[in-house]
Amino acid sequence: MKRVKLIKYLTSNLEIDEAEILSIVEKYPSKKVEREEFLLRENSRCKHTFFVESGLLRQYSIDEKGKEHTITFAPENWFVSDRESAYFNQPSAYYIQALEDSQVVMIDEGFMQHLSRKFPSFTKFNNKLLHNHIRHLQKRIHMLLSATAEERYLQFIAMYPDILLRVPQIMVASYLGITPESLSRVRRELARKKG
Amino acid sequence: MKRVKLIKYLTSNLEIDEAEILSIVEKYPSKKVEREEFLLRENSRCKHTFFVESGLLRQYSIDEKGKEHTITFAPENWFVSDRESAYFNQPSAYYIQALEDSQVVMIDEGFMQHLSRKFPSFTKFNNKLLHNHIRHLQKRIHMLLSATAEERYLQFIAMYPDILLRVPQIMVASYLGITPESLSRVRRELARKKG
DNA sequence: ATAATTTCTTATCATACATCAATGCGCAGT
DNA sequence: ACTGCGCATTGATGTATGATAAGAAATTAT
Known about the structure:
The structure is a homodimer of 195-residue chains. With 195 residues, chain A is an alpha+beta fold.
């Protein structure tokens, strides 16, 4: 039962035979990673796309001033990777770390090629993933350019209500681009307003 | 001489026959757009990718508070598009406008499919464009999360020294996510330091 | 050339958010 | 259960940047 979600994800998006997918997917390791464990570190090459079967991962960077910036939270059914590092074969600027004990399928370039050859529609699917990624990044940029601390937090709640409850506020703050103290104050204000 | 740069761009990236590319590319309109003219407006669907043969385009949005945010400056040899709108067939959140009189090749979905069928390597090329786009967006996010006004401006100078001289500062400011007044102050400070 | 806009600069004032610091809470490990 | 460390909260203070306004400069239109 270690790749069920990935298989479900693929079959529901690709309209292809489950047995066939299974025979490919099962060749790729599904790894149990413990809380705090790293799947990628800064300056190493990212060779995988991680699909989260269960648990929660976080991708983040540490800037020149020593500050952490959360790039993504990746709960069940999410893909995470450093596409930049993987595609251009460059040292990564990011860490990917488990925030909870997790089960993760390790997908690599061979997997992609294998599926692309076998299922022409996979290329399109992959394309869609890229476009979704771009859409997500655009939204993030727009938020950073136009929203106040409070607005950012409200957007976050609306988008990821579940994640909010599973990660420390300090990491939410680093996702929103504000300090933990500011986030705390924003929360107090909102609580005061609503009751 | 209206598609030379696009053809050069494609042949140098695809290693395919120039004559063959030409026969396809020449079917697509190369449009002369005048300064101030719009190629895309908010809420309309983006049906094209624009390749800039000459001149300069700007992609920007206007947020809920009425403020402009420059997404991209696109000088010669650049592609611009709203991938989100085009790919998901959604109303666009952006404007694309000419900052200078420009010559622009209008590429559409048919063009992509045509080239993909004819040249399998085109799919890979397209993939590379997507990854470059992602890399660019990541960099932007990192800048917005970690850099001060001055640092942003210095990064901009380093990356786009040519563009700096061709666009009003008010637009550079809206790209950096600061006010024109702040940019003016930053510039004065830098001038004072260096001499 | 002249007039009309738009942009740039500069100054003053306002503010959202950061920084620093202290306290208490809560969960994790022993 | 005890201990310790990281996290959240709160207050005091600082600062970078925003808002507003007004005049200078530059660009565009007539």
